[in-house]
Amino acid sequence: MSVANVEEAKVTVDERQFSDLHLHSIDIEEMSMMDMAALGVGPVELICVPKIAKSGFCLSSSCGHELYEVIADALHSGKGVLVSFGHVSDISSAFLESSIGRLYRGNFSDEEIAKKVVVCGLSDDDAFVLKMIIDRTKDYSKNPDHFEAEIKEVLGEADE
Known about the structure:
Blueprint: E1 16-18, E2 21-23, H1 28-33, E3 44-48, H2 49-53, E4 57-58, H3 61-76, E5 80-84, E6 90-91, H4 93-99, H5 110-116, E7 117-120, H6 124-142, H7 144-154
Parallel strand pairs: 2-7, 3-5, 4-6, 5-7
Antiparallel strand pairs: 1-2
Helix pairs in contact: 3-4, 6-7
């Protein structure tokens, strides 16, 4: 699924980097007109999140999974991905976890994500939540047994 309606996705965010995911202050329209090869990304697919969600509300994990599939398909075909959250008014952590966070669960290297995934249009609060999700996912991937033990302890299921 390729979404290319740039006018609906126009948005600007302060430039910053969270973990390996890049958020840019460049306007989507300007970004789409740039020579993406000069950024070292190669061909780029523009993904307008409201088109995937069919609204400005990105709340369910199933909707996030749909976004993940679109991003993963583009990455598997060797493309870079520009994910625009422009015109999204509400985003849940479940949506972010099942879309962007899922990229970090072993299907793609951190280096590939850092090089080929650009996210724009998130508020500062949503960008902070996304950073927390990415950090937690990476930590879990490094030591899943530790996390499982802590979960059991919190739930009172730890071996005595």
